[in-house]
Write a structure and sequence with these properties.
The complex is a heterotrimer of chains A (588), B (274) and C (474). Chain B has helices at 72-85, 100-109, 139-157, 168-180, 190-206, 218-223, and strands at 32-33, 43-45. Chain B is mainly α and 274 residues long. The N and C termini of chain B lie far apart (72 Å). Chain C is mainly alpha-helical. Chain C is built from 16 helices and 8 strands. Classes of the chains: A alpha/beta (588), B mainly alpha (274), C mainly alpha (474). Chains A and B meet through helix 2, helix 3, strand 5, strand 11 and strand 14 of A and strand 2, helix 4, helix 5 and helix 6 of B.
């Protein structure tokens, strides 16, 4: 039996990037906001201080900042003919827990999606004809356009102090930037980071081949910055312990370094930690959410009523909470009917090592979003005619810091251990770099999320079940862009290269990306989406679902910029429309 | 539809959410945190919490001499095996010199060895190649059972001699057999064991010395990794130049203590000191 | 009061057997606040004021930083009860809300003026932890305005705990003697030779601002040693309030007017972040003062005589070398290799007066247990120095402290290892502190729970984990 608590205006479930943004915007609107966070309080000087944050074993390999799987995990399989088994050990993706969420250990890669990414079905149909889209490819338009989101992308970049070089200012292509990006109204708030040797070599080679290298837009800051809230960030020191780690010197944007210093001081905001949401409860009509049941650290259950509820947990957990709460029709891959769990997507990565004899690259110097890329093969920036696939990805040298347990590249043919391996590691560590590709995944009828029939978490709730594999489209796309990456690698004139395509089925073991998307997607039609273009539940109008669970498919970029822009977009509608007249923002 | 939002004008600053009811006039106090275990909480409001002296610092490896988890026979096996994975050679010390066996012992004795943060609930089923770790054994149990089984097998084939006593080339042959699954042993996932042990050996060779391995930063010196230093800003655009500083661990390096001209620890007088 | 009489009284007090030797050079002040966490948050401590007359009193309260001492962290403003640890025992600040029993609800404006002016409450003498020896400069009009402001506060019925002082300090009447010796009663007297701004600054600094309460060293009876006004004072619990005379190395002489202004207004400038007691002073007092008043304070402090410089001993090169190694590896993350820091976040170390105080205790303290900049509306980020007590040995703390005191042109006496050892023990920093909410409870595993190493996760869940949800198996 759960104890019922006094009601609040707004309840936010999950306190990472989107939770903090929701709370900041709605406390500004005068509402009382309570955020539930399953993990504990964390902040720079005590929880990821530079006195101990640079610890590869503890954070990368022992997962100190990540979700504790003993508590909750998901089950995995590649297709419906297989039996899903639990992900017992983390690998392919690394969701976080605790205040700040995965936004504590993200890279800081701060991208905008291409205008065509947001309208991919319409765009592909226009350019290549409807037949170019395979029958089982369930891609659809986001329901918002780049122009809708531009002010909100801008807002997030100025919150973070993102460092970069504009490529398209109000339609004018800028030297040194990404010429493929959508038009931005103003420049990045801070200039691009300085580049180490390997990214510089990559950019030179790419330019020689006629491509358009540009610096990775980075929320590891090139210089000190004070954001519009008055919150300060310091310059990045390229320590090389960034992604998968918390930042020790306030130089990577996170909820802690951009919002919380202001938000936490507000009298109309409360953060409740160690409170894990179990279900969203509705009234007898089923159309209105009334409360969230959560369990605290002592195992006691509470019911927290609220007028307006925002889900801001990790994308996979948003979907699971909807399924556990019975909100929305679960997706059925056999019929293609239903929406919750539909269009789960991921990303497709590969890499090329380039080994040099004559160049000291000092690969340990790095930051999560430090490097040079080209976008010539992302999205629909190139003609897909005759290629047999849609979509693409960016690639480049992202020098994040070669921490040696993870990164000790050796040439093709080197044994995996023993004296020869040791010699090869010693000879190549300082003189090797990696071009990595980061490709999108188009959604597919057979890739989806539902509840597992067998396995349960510590509270006895069914685990989420992930059914996912790369389709022919992604395999062809990855082959194509990896070969282009190899072209650039050769143009860098190394002694030798090693190409790793990562062919075959999706495998849970090697780390790939923490960019799980979809399952609670946005769209224009309640039959094919869970939330409307304002991230408002079609079924329960006082429930909003933030995050990458809203992506109908996964473009070839890191998601955080768009996750935040969508949150600001949604909250603008909440403030300007919903609060004046609560109810559905889009009529069906 | 009537919602409380219609009275939001009344709910401006000053009223607090949560179980505690209305907040008194905001106090100039520390962030208000309800005590653990009392009410619905812990609630945090008013400020960002901070505690003097608080640090989520690492728990160092147990520094006592000798093994804690491994038996003598297991230790002999591990010392021999990790020595073959990363041998000492003209470039410098290997896994033995880096104290990797001690590192693995402490890891198996701790949370990692007991799979504390892994999902270890049944039912268990034979996995697909893409489903990762599916053993019902914790790493500590995998080591124990695999070492015993491998030693038994080696003893059968080599007249009672355990793995640790084999000549190096025969040890390598056994290790290769484990890696390729040619030496599969009934009831023991020898491949899982090999994979874990290679991973753990690399961890012990390249991880921070605070966990007992990478002694004297042997692994980092071998490759030129500077360790736990945080400011590489001055070196980012010094392209193609050697990095000038010695490696450092989370808990330091020899240079952190005052030394005399012979490099011996130096007593520092206090007469002129404040 | 005539000097011979003072001497006689001192002798008299000494003959009472007071253990003065151990008490010398320590202060009664705001410091040593027993509760650890200083109050913070500038948006909320002062209840909103509408009436313009009462607003005047609010501003006097700001000038005097009354709320800092008279509020328990997290408690009702001005309701008192905050423990102030003094060398003479623990004193609890009074409830100065208008509650008739617990507060000052029965007081008259005359009573209140007398308290400020003479340290005398209707029911007896006050201890000079209440800085009436400075508040005595506050004029009657300001006193009345402040009283009116306090009368309008929400009353708190909570009584402040009795102060916990040993004999003979528990005899409040003794304060008559103290007052005879040290209380120089009376309103501020303007100096006609100086500008209006200077006089305003002098009034604020010497009167309501009571800066000397911390920044001037104390004698064995806790009274300021006026010959060393603003030379810096040990305020207990490891904090040293720095020299604020125009001395260029240890005082404010190296800071521009604009830098001083930024510090008082926002709590930060390129050289320093206000933390702990000074953080409160900025958060509750100086950041809320008018720009003119801040400039007046600066004009006055600039015109004070500078502390005479000393020539510190030279450090041992071996210590400097070790200190440099620690610095490069551990401090450069924020303060950078060249010590330049980052404006208003990480203090610039070259030329830093805080580093070069003759008394290094603040530096040692901050190295051991860290320090947090108090957020202000202008600078909400509570930039913090992490604790090093778990990481650096006493020799290493001494070496790096000596290094930063003697690099980039800085010069200050080397720091002794034994000084660090004593401080570590005094602060309890010889023990490890885990962050708040650090999970240790295994009975009901929450998402962050860590287990003791000898359990594994199969003993870690509820009975339901791993059982079939729908009764079926895979």
């Amino acid at each position: 039996m759960s104890e019922k608590l006094p009601s609040v205006d707004v309840l936010v479930v999950g306190f990472g990037w989107t939770g903090a943004i929701v709370a900041q915007e709605l406390t500004d609107a005068g509402l009382n906001v309570l955020a539930l966070e399953r993990g504990r309080w964390r902040d720079t000087p005590t929880d990821f201080a530079p006195t101990f944050a640079q610890d590869e074993l503890r954070y990368m390999w022992r997962h100190a900042l990540f979700e504790n799987l003993a508590h909750n995990t998901l089950t995995i399989r590649n297709n419906t003919s297989q039996t899903a088994l639990p992900m017992r050990v983390m690998g392919s993706f690394l969701p976080g827990t605790g205040v700040g969420g995965s936004g504590v250990h993200w890279n800081g890669q701060t991208w905008r999606f291409l205008p065509s990414d947001l309208e991919v079905r319409s765009h592909v149909t226009r350019r290549y004809g409807a037949k170019a889209i395979p029958a089982d490819m369930t891609i659809q338009d986001f329901g918002v356009t780049y122009d809708d989101l531009e002010p909100h992308y801008d807002r997030f970049e100025y919150l973070c102090g993102t460092s970069g070089t504009a490529g398209n200012l109000n339609g004018q292509i800028q030297p040194g930037g990404n010429p493929f990006e959508g038009a931005r109204k103003r420049a990045y708030p801070t200039p691009a980071m300085r580049q180490a040797y390997a990214p510089t070599l990559f950019a030179e080679a790419a330019a020689k081949l006629g491509y358009h290298p540009f610096p990775q837009p980075s929320s590891n800051l090139s210089q000190a910055y004070t954001n519009p809230l008055g919150v300060q960030l310091a310059p990045c020191t390229y320590c090389g312990f960034c992604e998968k780690f918390g930042c020790g010197n306030y130089s990577k944007a996170s909820a802690q370094t951009t919002i919380l210093p202001v938000l936490m001081r507000k009298p109309n905001f409360t953060l409740r930690t160690e409170a894990e949401a179990l279900t969203i409860n509705r009234d007898s009509t089923g159309k209105r959410a009334v409360s969230v049941t959560y369990v605290d650290a002592q195992g006691r259950e509470f019911e927290q009523p609220a007028d307006l509820i925002f889900l801001g947990t990790y994308a996979l957990n948003n979907v699971r909470l909807l399924l556990l709460s019975g909100i929305g029709t679960p997706y059925d891959p056999r019929t293609g009917q239903g929406v919750v769990g539909r269009n789960y997507a991921y990303q497709r990565t590969s890499f090329v090592n380039a080994f040099f004899d004559d160049k000291i690259l000092n690969p340990f110097i790095g930051a999560g979003a430090h490097g040079m890329h080209i976008d010539d093969f992302n999205g629909d920036n190139f003609d897909h005619g005759g290629l047999g696939f849609l979509g693409g990805g960016y690639f480049g040298v992202l020098q994040t810091g070669a921490r040696p347990i993870e990164t000790h590249p050796v040439p093709e043919g080197t044994p995996t251990w023993g004296g020869a391996w040791k010699k090869a590691v010693a000879a190549n560590y300082l003189k090797t770099t990696t071009i990595s590709t980061h490709g999108g995944v188009m959604s597919h009828r057979g890739n989806y999320l539902d509840l597992d029939p067998t396995y349960r978490d510590v509270y006895g709730r069914p685990l989420l079940r992930m059914t996912f594999d790369y389709t022919d489209n992604e395999q062809k796309m990855a082959r194509y862009i990896t070969d282009r990456a190899a072209d650039v690698a050769r143009a860098m004139s190394p002694r030798e290269i090693k190409v790793v395509y990562r062919d075959g089925s999706w495998d849970v073991v090697p780390y790939q990306t923490t960019h799980n998307t979809g399952g609670a997607i946005m769209g224009a039609d309640p039959k094919t989406s869970v939330v409307n273009r304002y991230l408002q539940s079609w079924d329960v109008s006082n429930l909003f679902v933030m995050g990458a669970s809203a992506f109908p498919q996964n473009p070839g970029y890191n998601p955080t910029g768009t996750v935040a822009a969508l949150a600001y977009w949604s909250l603008e509608a909440v403030r300007e429309q919903y609060l004046k007249s609560p109810g559905p923002l889009v009529r069906t | 539809m009537e919602t409380k939002l219609s009275r939001r004008g009344l709910l401006g600053a000053g009223l607090a959410a949560g179980a505690a009811g209305a907040l008194p006039l905001a106090a100039p106090g520390a962030p208000e945190q309800s005590a653990r275990g009392g009410g619905a909480g812990p609630d945090i409001r008013g400020d960002m919490p901070w505690q003097e002296g608080a640090a989520d610092a690492p728990f160092p490896a147990d520094r006592r001499a000798g093994y804690i988890y491994f038996t003598a026979a297991e230790a002999a096996f591990i010392e021999a095996a990790v020595g073959r994975l990363i041998p000492a050679d003209e470039l410098g010390g290997g896994a033995i010199e880096a104290a990797v066996p001690l590192f693995i012992d402490r890891q198996l004795d701790g949370q990692y060895g007991h799979a504390t943060r892994w999902y270890m609930q049944g039912p268990w089923a034979p996995p697909l190649k893409t489903q990762g770790y599916q053993s019902r054994m914790t790493p500590a149990e995998v080591y124990r059972s695999a070492i015993r089984a491998i030693d038994d097998m080696v003893a059968q084939r080599h007249g009672g001699v355990p793995f640790a006593k084999l000549p190096p080339d025969q040890q390598d042959a056994v290790l290769k057999g484990l890696e390729t699954d040619e030496l599969a042993i009934e009831g023991v996932d020898t491949k899982v064991f090999f994979t874990l042990r290679l991973q753990n050996t690399i961890e012990g060779f390249f991880g921070d010395p605070v966990y007992g391995g990478n002694k004297d930063m042997i692994g980092w010196r071998l490759i030129g990794f500077p360790g736990a230093r945080y400011d590489h800003g001055p070196f980012v655009d010094r392209h193609n130049q050697p990095y000038p500083l010695p490696p450092v661990g989370i808990t330091g390096r020899p240079g952190w203590m005052p030394r005399d001209e012979d490099g011996q620890p130096k007593e520092v007088g206090t007469k002129t000191h404040v | 009061m005539k000097p011979p009489l003072r001497r006689a009284l001192v002798t008299g007090l000494l003959s009472l057997g007071i253990l003065v030797a151990t008490l010398s050079l320590v202060a009664i002040g705001l410091s040593g606040i027993a509760n650890g966490q200083p109050p913070s948050g500038t948006s909320g401590p002062y209840p909103p004021v509408m009436d313009p007359d009462v607003a005047k009193g609010y501003y006097v309260a700001v000038l005097g930083d009354c709320v800092g001492c008279h509020t328990v962290p997290g408690g009702l403003p001005f309701a008192g009860g905050r423990p102030l640890v003094t060398p003479f025992g623990t004193i609890y600040s009074a409830n100065i809300t208008p509650d008739k029993d617990a507060g000052i609800g029965r007081w008259t404006a005359d009573d209140f003026y007398r308290a400020l002016h003479e340290g005398k409450a209707p029911d007896g003498h006050l201890y000079p932890a209440f800085p009436y020896n400075y508040y005595t400069r506050i004029g009657r009009a300001d006193s009345d305005a402040l009283f009116a402001y306090l009368r309008g506060l929400p009353p708190s019925p909570k009584r402040s705990p009795r102060s916990d002082l040993p004999f003979p300090f528990n005899i409040r009447a003794l304060m008559m003697g103290w007052n005879l010796l040290f209380l120089d009663k009376g309103d501020y007297k303007p100096d006609p030779a100086k500008s209006a701004a200077w006089n305003r600054g002098a009034y604020l600094v010497e009167g309501p601002g009571h800066c000397a309460a911390c920044h001037t060293p104390k004698n064995f009876l806790g009274a300021p040693r006026t010959s060393r006004d603003y030379h810096g004072g040990d305020i207990g619990n490891g904090w040293y309030a720095p020299d604020i005379t125009p001395n260029k190395r240890t005082g404010i002489g190296g800071w521009s007017d604009e830098e001083l202004f930024q510090y008082l207004k926002t709590g930060r400038n390129a050289h320093a972040n206000a933390a702990a007691d000074m953080g409160e002073v900025v958060a509750y007092s100086t950041s809320r003062m008018t720009d003119d008043d801040l400039r007046a304070i600066i004009a006055y402090l600039r015109d004070r005589p500078a502390r005479a410089d000393d020539t510190p001993a030279k450090p041992d090169p071996a210590v400097m070398k070790a200190g440099e190694a620690v610095y490069v590896d551990s401090c450069a993350a924020c303060h950078r290799m060249d010590g330049a820091g980052s404006m208003a976040m990480f203090p610039r170390l070259p030329g830093s007066p805080n580093l070069q105080q003759p008394n290094p205790s603040t530096l040692i303290r901050v190295l051991l247990v860290g320090s947090r900049s108090l957020p202000t509306d202008a600078r909400p980020t509570p930039t913090s120095m992490p604790a090093f007590n778990w990481k650096l040995r006493d020799e290493q703390i001494a070496a790096v402290a000596t290094y930063v005191r003697n690099s980039w042109g800085n010069a200050a006496a080397p720091v002794g290892v034994d000084t660090v050892t004593r401080m570590r023990k005094a602060l309890g920093a010889d023990r490890r502190t885990l962050p708040d909410g650090y999970p240790t409870d295994m009975r009901h595993p929450n998402p962050e729970t860590i287990s003791s190493p000898h359990t594994d996760s199969r003993q870690n869940g509820t009975g339901q984990a791993g059982t079939a949800a729908d009764g079926g198996g895979p």
